[in-house]
Amino acid sequence: MKRCLAALALAVLLCLPLTACQKQQNLYSATWFDLFDTVAIVQGYATGQDEWNAQAAAVQEDLSRYNELFDIYNHYDDVVNLYDVNAGAAAAPVAVDDELYAFLRWCKDTVYPATDGATNIAAGAVLRLWHDARESDSPAPPDAEAIAAALEHIDIENLVLDDDAQTVYFADPAMTLDVGAVGKGYAVEQAAQAAQARGLTSALLNIGGNLRAIGTKPGGKLWTAGVENPWGDDPAYIQAVELADGDSLVISGDYQRYFEYGGVRYAHLIDLTTGWPARYVSSVAVLAHADTGGLADALSTGLFCLPESTGQTLAAQNHYAVLWMHPDKTTQKSNDWPQ
After folding, report:
1. Which residues contact 305 (CB under 8 A, 6 or more apart)?
2. Residue 28's beta-bridge partner residues?
3. Which domain holds residue 130?
4. What is the tally of structural domains in the chain?
5. Is residue 300 in a domain?
6. Which helix (H) or strand (E) holds 167?
C-alpha cells in the first residue's frame, strides 16, 4: 500500500502548474480501498467538483463490476463470476455473460501466447498452493510433491470455451482458474476506455500500481510516473517515465508480495515451468502503448517468470518496452524502453 501511495505522490509532484488559459481545469483525486485487494487512486482534471465526482463514481462502478467478475474467492448475488466457474465448470459447462466470456477468450487466445505461456489463467491449482502458504499464520513453501501434482493440471487447452453457447468448461476436473496476473490490468484498461467514452479527457489511473493514462495534462504535458527501486535503497525510484494518452506502466517485483522462510524470500510470482517462485530478476517494468495497454499487467508477470533472453525476443516481436532489474542492481532494457 505504501508503494502505491508513493507512486501517486510522485505523479502529483511532477504535475506542472496550469497556465492562465487553463485555469478552468482543476486537479482532483479519488481513492478507494475495496478494489482488487489494493489501493486504487485516480487523479484527473475537470471543470468542477460535480463533474469530477460523476466521472470518478463511474470509474469506481466499472472497477467494482470487474472486481466481482474476477473474484475466485467469493460469490455475489446476481453475478456469475470466476468463483462460480471454478465451482461448476468441471461438472458441466457454465454460461457466463459477455464481459466475462470476452475476458476469458482474450486470456486464452492473446495473453497466453504473448507471454509464451508464462501468464496462464489455468494455473490455479499451483497458484492456490502458494496463496494458501503465503496467507498462513506460519508461512512455509508448499510440499514439493503437491506442487508437482498441481503442475499436471494447468494445461490451458483444458479450458474449453464455446463461442456459440458462451459457456466455460474444464476438460480436466482438477483445473481451476486464477486471473490475478491479468485481471486487474484488463479491468483498468476497460475502465479507462469507458471513462474516455463518457468524456473524461485528462486523468491517471493507479490501481495497485497498474498505471494508465487518459489524455494528457492541460497544456499537453504528459503524465509522469516512477519506476520503483526494487532493492530497497535510496532513491525510491530509479527512473521517471512519461505516459502519453493510452499508455500503461506496470511493474512486477519480488518485493511486493512475499514471505520469508529459512532466510529465503518466496515471492508470489510463480515460474510455471517449475511451480516455484521465479528467480530471474528482482523486478520487471513494462511500458505498453494504446494498442497493447490491456496486456501490460499480464506481460510484467510473464516476463518476470521468463529468462531475459526469451523476454527480449517477445518484447521485440510485440513492440512493447521493458526494463529488467537484476538482483545485482544492474538493469537491462529492450530497444523501445525510453532513455
Report:
1. 118, 119, 269, 270, 271, 272, 278, 280
2. 44
3. 82-170
4. 1
5. no
6. strand 167-170
DSSP H/E element including 56: helix 49-69
In a domain, 159, yes or no: yes
| Of residues 29, 27, 44, the one with CA closest to residue 202 | 44
DSSP 136-148: SSS--PPPHHHHH
Which amino acid does the sequence have at 71? D
Annotated binding residue 38: no
Q: 251 with 210: CB under 8 angstroms? A: no
Q: Is 298 annotated as a binding residue?
A: no
> Residue-wise pLDDT tens for the chain (339 aa)?
434 444 444 444 444 444 444 458 899 999 999 999 999 999 999 999 999 999 999 999 999 999 999 999 999 999 999 999 999 999 999 999 999 999 999 999 999 999 999 999 999 999 999 999 999 999 999 999 999 999 999 999 999 999 999 999 999 999 999 999 999 999 999 999 999 999 999 999 999 989 999 999 999 999 999 999 999 878 999 999 999 999 999 999 998 889 999 999 999 999 999 999 999 999 999 999 876 668 899 999 999 999 999 999 998 887 889 999 999 999 999 988 998
88 in a structural domain: yes
Q: Is 297 annotated as a binding residue?
A: yes
Spatial distance between the Cα atoms of 152 and 192, rounded to a whole number of angstroms: 37
Residue 135 lies in a domain: yes
The C-alpha cell that represents 85 in the structure block:
466457474
pTM of the model: 0.90
State the cell numbers at 172: 480436466
Supply 280's cell numbers: 530471474
CATH number for 159? 1.10.3980.10
First to last CA, the chain: 28
